[in-house]
Amino acid sequence: METTGVGRSQATLIRKPRLTPRQVENIAGYLFALPWLLHFVLLIAGAMIFSLAISLTETDLLTGYKFVGLKNYQNIIKDPLFIKSLKVTAYYTFLVVPLGVCVALSIALILNQNVYGLGFWRLIYYLPSVVSGVAVAVLWTWVLNPRFGLLNAGLRALGVADPPRWIYSEVWAVPGFILMGLWGAGGAMLLYLAGLQSIPTQLYEAADIDGANRWHKFWRVTLPMLTPTIFFNMLMSIIGSFQVFTQVYVMTDGGPNNATLTMVLYLYRRGFINLKFGYASALAWVLFFIILIFTMAVVRSSVAWVYYEGELRK
Amino acid sequence: MSLQAQLQERLRVTDWRIVRLRAGRVVGQVITYSVLSVGAFIFAIPFLWMLSTSLKGEAYAYRVPIVWIPPEFKWSTYTEAWRMLPFGLFYRNTAFITVMNIIGITLSSSLVAFAFARIRFVGRDVLFLILLSTMMLPSQVTLIPIYVVWARLKAVNTFWPLIVPEWLSNAYNVFLLRQFMMTITPEYDDAARIDGAGWARIYSQIIMPMSKPALGVIAIQAFAWNWNNFLGPLIYLNETRKYTVSIGLRLFQTMQASKMPETMAMSVVALIPVLIMFFIAQRYFIQGIVITGVKG
């Protein structure tokens, strides 16, 4: 720091180098934020630049890098497996996200009616969303087993003579994963419950005075007031659904006949199995832009359907 | 009609209304609780089936229709399956990584969150905006370059790649903690500063103790996430003795795929720590959801 030359040696003997409180605050700020600054520089910015560079090469990481320009990207667009994985992932996302909103919202609405034993019900509905990973995937491999599985046992008990073959069938594999995804709707349910409880009761009282029935109150008060929560939750689940990996890797490994080949699974296969890291990096960037496009679309659409308090409307 | 009769008539009408209202309410309640029960049954039944299957042995596991309670519980399924792979070692590895990362995440994220919530340094707001925007980046984009660097450092097949990044905080936890710290009034800081405390003391003796609820949320989420983490260990660990529970279980599944009781038993074993933690710290799990969701 610039200290004045006058009596410098004396000053340093007596006191520490003088810093203004502002400078101390700046230094302290950067020191405290250091872990994330390192995280950002190394694991995000640095890694992104490196990733972009790798995506322009052909490499197995062992025998060096061969610059190929945009060839990886050009190949991706023509790659039938990539197109397949995009379709599979989009199919999964576009079903599991809206269905998830419906299931979670329905449970939250029921739980919001002053039911007895709220803690107990909440626990049961929330529990499946806490557990995740391989153990749950192994469990669902068996739940969806056509012969001995729980789901088909239930369907047969309900009188379905010939229940689907789920993860062993090209048609039913993705719906099987969707059911598994809906089983974890409890996290979103808690969000909606919190959202429901923060709706001011005056709004319902006012609606009562105007003679609104339950149906009106739901469509005119509850749902509009809940749209910010629905929006936030939809955004998060779209991003999450596009990155599905563990379940498909453990349960079907993309099969049967690539019917469950999701984009991240394809990326993993290309990179860590076929050792085409350049191609896999390019895939990661394509995935990123696809997620970006869909999130931007949802954000854009939010102007039309998300209600924010304090917003003026005509 | 006499006055009395009129009065009686009116009373009857009123009664009838009350009865109808009450009946409506009762019917509503019956419907509510029936729907809730059916839903809860559907959500809980995979767990019960898992437990039942793991305990009934080969003889009953594949019966159609399902035998829920076998005549005899076969506990040996658990001990035998446990011995087929070094699950004790997998448990120790996972516990080590998980504990290290809970410490690392809470420590680093709280330091960074403190900076963003409390210290007014140059460029803070821009940095915070960048931090928020990085939450949108899918981790796959940085997966390969980070792997390349660890490979160069000859650190593949060690726990370092699974631990070091967690010690550098992450955007989500920083955001959550920062939001919480913002609710603590700055008057505490001012009072401490008058008493001669520096930033380090304010962090460690005022803000950290007051942030315990939010720190609990983060610790519990770090626990669940690290315990279940699959892609990281799958990529970085390639020797069986280094495996975590999740890739150990995956290996077990590929070896014993056709054995329902055994794979179910080991899944139960893998789930138990998370379930125990959930029942102990349920409050924190639920708070975590609420804190992050309120942002909206």
Descriptive notes:
The complex is a heterodimer of chains A (314) and B (296). Chain A is mainly α and 314 residues long. Chain A is built from 15 helices and two strands. Chain A has a two-stranded antiparallel sheet. In chain A, a hairpin with a 5-residue loop joins β1 and β2 (65-67). Chain A is globular, with a radius of gyration of 27 Å. Chain B is flat. Chain B has two domains: 3-74; 77-294, MetI-like (MetI-like fold, Orthogonal Bundle). In chain B, α2 crosses α13. Chain B has 14 helices and no strands. The model of chain B has no long low-confidence stretch (mean pLDDT 87). Chain B has helices spanning 3-61, 76-84, 87-118, 124-134, 140-152, 160-163, 171-182, 187-194, 199-210, 212-228, 231-236, 245-255, 260-280, 282-294. The longest helix of chain B has 59 residues, at 3-61. Chains A and B meet through α2, α3, α5, α6 and α7 of A and α1, α3, α4, α5 and α10 of B.
Beta content of chain A:
under 5%
Could you give the order of the helices and strands of chain A? HHHEEHHHHHHHHHHHH
Name of the CATH homologous superfamily of the largest domain in chain B: MetI-like
Q: Which strand order do you get reading across the main beta sheet of chain A? A: 1-2
CATH H-level homologous superfamily name of the largest domain in chain A: MetI-like
Q: What CATH architecture label of the largest domain in chain A applies?
A: Orthogonal Bundle
What is the percentage of strand-forming residues of chain B?
A: under 5%
CATH class of the largest domain in chain B: Mainly Alpha
Largest interface: A-B, 92 and 92 residues
Shape of chain A: globular
Helix content of chain B: over 70%
Q: Please give the count of helices of chain A.
A: 15
Q: Could you tell me the mean pLDDT of chain A?
A: 87
Assembly level = heterodimer
Could you tell me how far the N terminus lies from the C terminus of chain B, measured between alpha carbons in angstroms? 64 Å
- CATH architecture call of the largest domain in chain B: Orthogonal Bundle
Radius of gyration of chain A: 27 Å
The class by helix and strand makeup of chain A works out as mainly alpha
Helices and strands of chain B: which structural class?
A: mainly alpha
Shape of chain B: flat
| CA-CA gap between termini of chain A | 57 Å
